[in-house]
Design a protein that fits this description.
Elements (H helix, E strand, L loop, with lengths): L9 H11 L3 H8 L3 H13 L6 E5 L7 H4 L5 E6 L2 H11 L3 E2 L2 E5 L12 E7 L8 H11 E12 L5 H22 L3 H13 L3 H10 L3 E8 L4 E7 L4
Parallel strand pairs: 1-2, 1-5, 2-4, 5-6
Antiparallel strand pairs: 3-4, 6-8, 7-8
Helix pairs in contact: 7-8
The structure holds S-adenosylmethionine (SAM).
EC number: 2.1.1.163
Protein name: Demethylmenaquinone methyltransferase
GO molecular function: demethylmenaquinone methyltransferase activity
């Protein structure tokens, strides 16, 4: 069984996602009780991409969110460093370039794009898995156009202590067991729970975005804070 540790070694993270790619989307639906679809719709609405715009969907995995971003005519680059996840996505969509989405292999810590390329940059459930959060936030800022926006959709923390305790219990005890019924890599789902518990809260992530150069940073909670959507802008020059 392949899992990453909280040091998030890139080789371990990529190998772990390669190993779960085939059942990744199914497990998301099961473990979130279908809530993930609502979270993705909220992220797509927050990006608000229009015809003529170019969007980077970073750590796109199988591209579950990428296709929806093209709804108003935007073009989307789906970038990830797990070949297994990209391959599974291409299989599902019938090709690595299809329906306004182009898959590109690349590392969030050294993006294979010129400065100021994208109107919007978004990352869903990816930033938590990147080894160096601050460097990834700076890379996303570098490839966004001046005035461009970022939307981060990521697990977060429930501000009500009693509810957070119940949720933490689900993460640490139930989630890996349920995952074990559908996946032969339970350890990958233990990593999922541990990495969520270890992740900064809403204000902590907002502060890191600001340090990376993003301005007008704001967030809103989804499902009481199980997930948070953060948005920011690269300042105009
Ligand atoms: C939980 S999946 C999220 C996939 C997709 N965005 C979604 O919403 O379902 C996390 C993804 O982050 C990718 N990832 C982690 N570190 C990365 C890095 N340094 N560069 C590119 N992708 C990375 C993994 O390969 C994996 O596909």
């Amino acid at each position: 069984m392949t899992r990453a540790e909280l040091d998030k070694s890139p080789a371990d993270v990529a190998a772990m996602f390669d190993s779960i790619a085939g059942r990744y989307d199914l497990l998301n639906d099961v473990l979130s009780l279908g809530q993930d679809r609502q979270w993705r719709r909220a992220a797509v609405r927050a990006v608000e991409a229009y015809s003529g715009e170019l969007v980077l969907d970073l750590a796109a995995g199988t591209g579950t969110s990428s296709q929806a971003l093209t709804g108003n005519g935007a073009r989307v680059i789906a970038c990830d460093f797990s070949q297994g996840m990209l391959r599974e996505g291409a299989r599902q969509r019938g090709g690595a370039v299809s329906g306004g989405v182009a898959c590109v292999a690349g590392d969030a810590l050294e993006l294979p794009f010129e400065d100021a390329t994208f109107d919007a940059v978004t990352i869903s459930f990816g930033l938590r898995n990147v080894q160096d959060t601050d460097r990834a936030l700076r890379e996303m800022h570098r490839v966004a156009k001046p005035g461009g926006r970022v939307v981060i959709c990521e697990f977060s923390h429930i501000p009500v202590r009693a509810a957070d305790r119940v949720y933490s219990g689900y993460l640490m005890a139930a989630l890996p067991r349920i995952a074990g019924l559908f996946s032969d890599n339970t350890a990958a789902y233990e990593y999922l729970s541990e990495s969520i518990m270890d992740w900064p809260d809403q204000a902590g992530l907002a502060a890191r975005m600001q340090r990376a150069g993003w301005t007008r940073v704001a967030w809103r909670n989804l499902t009481m804070g199980v997930v948070a959507l953060h948005r920011g802008y690269r300042p105009e020059e």
